[in-house]
Amino acid sequence: MEGDAGAPLEEEETSILESLSGTIAPFLTGEGIDAIDKQGYWVRDDDGELTTPLVDGKQCVYACFSDEGIAGCAIEKAWEKGLCDFRKPLSCHLYPVRIQKYPHYDALNYHRWPLCDAARVCGSKKGVRVFRFLKEALVRKYGEDWYRELEEYFILSGLKT
Ligand code: SF4
């Protein structure tokens, strides 16, 4: 519900979202459907970046809510039911890591936001490193070999595991 733009999208994800319109429709909220009708399945933000549209400048159009008011993702709900192979946009899967693309490499930056304070406390108590929490998403983007190298580098660096 916070922030001024939706989730960043990869170019190819725009057509995936369009192709999944019928599959995810049953999981969307009424206001999400209205917002998609007006804006489409994706938009360009003020910086020209591809993102998911927002409902009245608040939550992502793909957000859905349980009876207890817990937010979820309509795309992921469809994926959980085995209705599609696409789980959710990569940037959502990777959050709180954000990709900054440069001509010859990607920089992976940790996005520190007070909204995630509780998760940081929980991860710290359980001894879960962010990159391990994000293993599935990192493998999705960069592959198994890349992730294995990251683990090896981390251990060789002498940082506490
Ligand atoms: S996880 Fe789903 S609801 Fe949340 S920002 Fe990403 S696409 Fe939108």
What does the model show?
With 161 residues, this protein is α+β, with helices and mostly antiparallel strands. The mean pLDDT is 94. The chain is 43% helix and 12% strand. It has 9 helices and 6 strands, in the order αααββββααββαααα. The longest helix has 13 residues. The strands form 3 sheets. It has a two-stranded antiparallel sheet with strand order 1-2. The protein is globular, with a radius of gyration of 17 Å. The structure holds iron/sulfur cluster.
Mean pLDDT: 94
Distance between the termini: 34 Å
What is the helix tally?
Answer: 9
Strand arrangement within the widest β-sheet reads 1-2
Brief sketch in words of this structure:
With about 160 residues, the chain is an alpha+beta fold.
Features:
161 residues, binds iron/sulfur cluster, alpha+beta, two-stranded antiparallel sheet, 9 helices
Describe how the helices and strands are arranged.
Blueprint lengths: L10 H9 L1 H4 L5 H10 L3 E2 L5 E2 L11 E3 L5 E3 H7 L9 H5 L2 E5 L4 E5 L6 H10 L3 H4 L1 H8 L1 H13 L5
Antiparallel strand pairs: 1-2, 3-4, 5-6
